[in-house]
Amino acid sequence: MNALARPLPASSSAEILWERMLDCLRQDKLEYALGWIGRMRPLEVREDTLVMGVPDRFYRDWLDDHYRPLLESTLARVADRPMELAYEVVPGLAPAPNLQPPPSAHKPEGARPPRMNARFTFQTFVVADSNQLAAAAAAAVSDSPGRAYNPLYIYGGTGLGKTHLLHAIGNKIWERDPSQRVVYLSSEQFTNEFIESVREQRMPEFRRKFRDECDVLLIDDVQFLGRKEETQREFFHTFNTLHELGKAIILTSDMVPAEVPGLEERLRSRFSMGLITDIQEPTFETRVAILQKKAVLEGLDLPDEVAHYIARAIQKNVRELEGALVKVSAIHSLSRQPVTVDFAAHVLKDVLPTRQVVDVETIQKEVARYYKVPAEALKEDRRHKALAHARQVAMYLSRKLTKASFPEIGARFSKDHSTVISAVRKVEKLRESDAGMKRELDELEAKLTGE
Ligand SMILES: Nc1ncnc2c1ncn2[C@@H]1O[C@H](COP(=O)(O)OP(=O)(O)OP(=O)(O)O)[C@@H](O)[C@H]1O
Question: PANTHER family, per this entry (predicted)?
Fold first, then answer.
């Protein structure tokens, strides 16, 4: 009997079991899982079943899909006997308070200037052809603020790293000399603060903040200044004061100054006084390099073929690329499933560009036709070898190409979720070791998705 499986007292309750399960997950360094399962609450123990309350059906299915094996094995460990988990939907269930991350988990922020993100640094930025000039200019500005390129104006499409570079400049200047007053905000925030200061008659304070107490001004998304005449007037004076004092000004936008609708001519010409540089969409190689760098930061062992798969699927936006990786990493660390192309395809079904939509029934029909077996037989309990193979392939493809959970797929084949899980694992393994199997699966997949 392991230490966690102390005999339960007669009053053994769902809470006690649940507490022990949480301890167990913490000991196994699965804190990550706690956030995801934290919306469950223990309700009661019914014979060999621990009944948990969940907020809705979607959440229940998702849990079942991703955590049942982990949760049931943990439950068996703490109860020291096999037990099952059951879920009951309890609408409006609040997260358990004991699952907030401990305060020590937060990195102390020190006195970093407000709104500055310590994660966005030059070290975490991947320099490539698509952003080389912008990155070099940003580095030059951070080395001699106010002297090199003033202002520096970085423009480009959404999610390509403009804000990251802006923060990298501010972080580097501040880290080298924390007495430097770095002010970062978006042009919308500037507008809002301005309006509020006018309304509350606090303009002297506003001007002090942006003109007297600012050494480096970082303004994100300046395009939102367009057509805001009063704010533009105020910003014009702010800009002039800082520029004359040799303070660094760095601006980002999604377009060049000449294209910002409703931007006054005098601001346009000032924004063009220093250096205007753009960030382009990343090439395939850059996307792979970004994924690999982020994987290292996430502590994820990312096989090249998975990096290539994601980089091929998400082409225009680094934010989405990063989001995809974080999702793969999170679900991998929770489910402990190996990071393969199939795993990534399944995890990212909702975010990758949609392919032809297929459902389990269509898959059953197509697979049956392919293996020349009756589709109905896939749903029966017949163990004939060819049938069993076709059934397993159909389960695997259902898992990969549809949003159905393991129990939902099981229901379509009159099998329970654990049969589906082992069929999927088996086909995944075969796919990797057997070239003929890989070809069969690719052919079927191409037929089903129209690709
Ligand atoms: N070259 C890169 N190296 C590493 N990470 C990058 C790179 N480019 C972008 N990113 C990451 O992509 C995400 C989006 O970047 P960022 O917020 O800087 O985009 P943006 O260009 O400011 O977009 P928007 O115009 O929508 O505000 C960030 O998490 C950022 O760290």
Answer: CHROMOSOMAL REPLICATION INITIATOR PROTEIN DNAA
Question: With a threshold of 0.90, does the pTM exceed it?
Answer: no
The β-bridge partners of 54 are: 89
Q: What is the pLDDT of residue 20?
A: 83
Distance (angstroms) between ligand 1 centre and the Cα of 162 equals 6
Nearest to 400 by CA among 336, 334, 355: 355
Of 121, 292, 317, 319, the one to substitute when testing ligand 1's pocket (max ligand atoms within 8 A of C-beta) is 319
Residue located nearest, by CA, to atom 6 of ligand 1: 161
**Per-residue pLDDT at 112:** 86
Q: Which residues contact ligand 1 via a Cβ below 6 A?
A: 120, 124-126, 131, 156, 158-164, 254, 290, 318-319, 322
Atom of ligand 1 minimally distant from the CA of 282 = 1
What's the pLDDT score for residue 8? Answer: 44
Which domains does the chain carry? 14-99 (3.30.300.180), 132-279 (3.40.50.300), 284-347 (1.10.8.60), 360-449 (1.10.1750.10)
C-alpha of residue 124 to centroid of ligand 1, in Å: 11
49 annotated ligand binder: no
Nearest CA to ligand 1 atom 25: 158
Q: What is the pLDDT of residue 100?
A: 40
> In this predicted structure, what is the pLDDT of residue 96?
47
Instruction: Tell me what ipTM this predicted complex has.
Output: 0.99
pLDDT mean values, one per 10 residues, the chain (451 residues): 41 75 73 65 86 78 73 83 84 54 39 88 92 96 94 96 97 92 96 96 96 97 95 97 97 96 96 96 92 90 92 88 90 87 86 71 94 90 85 93 85 91 91 91 86 62
Q: Give the per-residue pLDDT at 6.
A: 44
